[in-house]
Amino acid sequence: MESVTAHIALTDELIAIRRHLHAHPERSFHETETSAYLERALRDHGIDVLANPMETGVVAQITGAHAGPTVALRADIDGLPIHEDSGLDFASANPGVMHGCGHDLHMASLLGAVFWLSAHRDLIGGTVRIIFQPAEELGLGARAVIDAGLVDGVEAIIGTHNNPNYAPGTLAAGTAPMMAGCVRFGVTLHAQGTHAGYPHKGTGPLEAMASMIMSLQTIVSRNVTPFHPLVVSVTEVHGGDVWNVVPAEAGFQGTVRYFHREDGDMAAERFHAIVEQTAAAYGIGASVDWDDFQDPLVSDPALIEPVCAHIPQYASLAPIMPSMAGEDFAEYAKVTRPVFAFVGSNGTPGCADWHSPRFVGFDETVRTGADFYANTALDVLDALRVSGAR
After folding, report:
1. Mutual orientation of helices 365-389 and 103-119 as an angle, nearest 10°?
2. Contacts with 338 (C-beta within 8 Å, 6 or more apart), sequence order
C-alpha cells in the first residue's frame, strides 16, 4: 500500500462527541446509552455495525479496498463510581459516576480514526474491526469480548490509554512493560473466639493478622531485585465487632502488582508461606484466595517496532513511564498480538491522575489518539502482510 501518514483534524464534531460522552458516563456492563450513542455515530458515517451477542459494547468493521489480514482497534467505554469534582463545564451529569480514567477520550479518539479510515478505504489492505469494549474497570470486559468470539480471526489488536503524565501531542510506546500484572488477594483467619477478659481460653486471630501484614512487606524488600518494580498492598482489614470479645474470624484483602512473570510467581509462593506459617505459629487456620487475574501489558515486539518508527511523523515519541495500574487489554495477548500506547492527556505540573475526582484530560488528546489508531492500523496491516509473504 501507499505510505501515508494520517493527520486527523480535531473537528467540532469530535469535540462535541468527547464532551457528550464525558458528561454521560455509565458503570461497567451497564453502558447501554453509551453503546447506543456510539452505534448511531458509526452508522451516521456509513460504517458497518456488526451483531454483538453482549448486552453492551459495539463492534463494527471496515473492509479495505485490497485483500489482507484483519486487525482490531479497541477502546474501553465504562466509567467509574466516582463523584466528579473536575470543574469542567461538561462534567458528569450522572451523579456518582465519572469518566475518571478518561475512557471518553478513548472513545472519541477511536471514532475519529474510524471516520478517517472509512473515508480512505483505498489505503487499507485488509480489514479493520472496531471494538468498543465494556467493563475494563472491572478487568472483565476483554475476556467477555474474547468469549463472545468478537476477536476471532483478528491477527493483531491495537489499543491506547490516555496518560495525564504526558502532554497532548505525545505518545509513549515500545517493547518494555507498560502496565502491571494484577493480583487480587483475600485472607480469612479461623480461630477460637473468647471473652476478652479470658484470652487464654481462645486463639484470637488479630495478633496473627497484624504479624502477617507486617511480614508481607518483606516480599518486596527481601525477595526481589530493586530493579524490578513490585507492590504488595493490603487495602482492607476486618475482625470483630464487639468491644469485649476476641473474634473467631478476621481477615484482610489487597493487591499485588508486578511487571515480570517470575516476580508474580515468587510473590505468590512467599505470600502463601508467610500466611500459612504465621497462622500455624499462632495456632489458628488460614485460607487464601489468590486471583492472578491480569498479566502485565507488553506490546508485540515485532509489530511495535514499525509503529514507533512512524510515530515521529505525527506525534512526539516519549519513553515509557510504566504504570502500576492494570489494563485488561493484556487479556487479548492470550489470543492475538497486542500493540499499545500511552497518549498524553494533560502534562501540567501537579495534575490529577487516573481515578481521581479531579482528573482532567484535554480535548487535544483526541487528535493524537485518533492519529495513533489510524496510522497504527495501516502500519500493522503492512507488517502482517510482509511477515505473511515470507
Report:
1. 60
2. 156, 157, 159, 297, 298, 299, 300, 329, 330, 332
Q: In degrees rounded to 5, what are phi and psi of residue 357?
A: -65, -15
Q: Which residues are annotated as a binding site?
A: 101, 103, 137, 161, 355
Query: What pLDDT is stored for residue 390 in this prediction?
Result: 40
DSSP letters spanning 209-224: HHHHHHHHTHHHHHHS
Task: Compute how many other C-beta atoms are within 10 angstroms of the C-beta atom of residue 71.
Answer: 27
With H, G, I as helix, E, B as strand and everything else as coil, classify residue 257. Answer: strand
Residue 388: the pLDDT is 75
Q: How many CA atoms lie within 13 A of 224 on its CB side?
A: 27
Supply 185's cell numbers.
Answer: 488477594
pLDDT along the chain (390 residues), means of 10: 87 98 98 98 98 97 97 98 98 98 98 98 98 97 98 98 98 97 98 95 96 98 94 98 96 97 97 98 98 96 98 98 96 98 97 98 98 98 82
Domains detected in the chain: 12-179+297-389 (3.40.630.10), 181-294 (3.30.70.360)
Binding-site residues for Mn(2+), in ranges, read 101, 103, 137, 161, 355
DSSP code at position 174: S
The pTM assigned to this predicted structure is 0.93
What CA–CA distance (Å, rounded) separates 317 from 383? Answer: 20
* Secondary structure (DSSP) of 125-168: EEEEEEEEES-TTTT-HHHHHHHTTTTTT-SEEEEEEEETTS-T
